[in-house]
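Human: Respectfully, please carefully check these tokens:
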Amino acid sequence: MQNKLGEFIRAHRERTPPASVGLPTGGRRRTPGLRREELAQLCDVSPTWLTWLEQGRDVAPSGKLLARLAEVLHLSAAERTYLFSLAERLDPRHGDDSAAAAAPLQEMVDAIDGPAYLLDRQWDALAWNVHAAALFGGWLEVEAAASDRPNLLRFMFRHPAARGLIVDWDDRAHRLVAEFRADIGRHASDPALAALIAALSAESAEFARLWTRQDVTSREGGLRRFQHPRAGELSFNQVTLHLAKRHDLKLVMLLPA
């Protein structure tokens, strides 16, 4: 995997015109693209370190450095995503366009005949339909007006309405934390995720206890039961889909059981 990363960086370095980054194009050049020393200087690393990276040696590029490489090499959105995927790093820019990504998807969520919502990597809700708002009123209606986006974990562990709404709350809370750990995987140290985990651990003894268990389980579908204050007992089959172009976004649908 690391060698694929080096090969990818080298191929794009060699096809990046010096003029595109403000360097002179005169003189003899063994490659029409950037020299390794030039790319290293532009990214504020040593040529030796960049050589090791291209050779697939055991070096660990940070997300910040990968972002700089993507900028200097003029990578497209797809190429940038591929770069971070090869490096197994979280793109520091991954949350910047969440709102923009959610905008065209709102129509899709609205077209679903049942509760549906879109979650990002932190499990913040980016979009939801009227059915979801009616079911999770305390989550989507109250927190949506706050400065923070509605967050599924905050609702589960901090909102009093969750315990009355969600049937078998203890079991669902256990599974939800285990699913969240599996979902974020190696990205748990990302500042935004780390801050969320720290805040929930400080504010909810239940979350802190479940998080320290280190349990992991896949985010599976299945029966979800609710005791709605107005509609009474409701049952749905949950289906979760990851988006093809944004793997950090999840579409959650609750279909009639």
About this structure: The beta strands are 116-119, 125-128, 222-228, 232-242, 250-256.
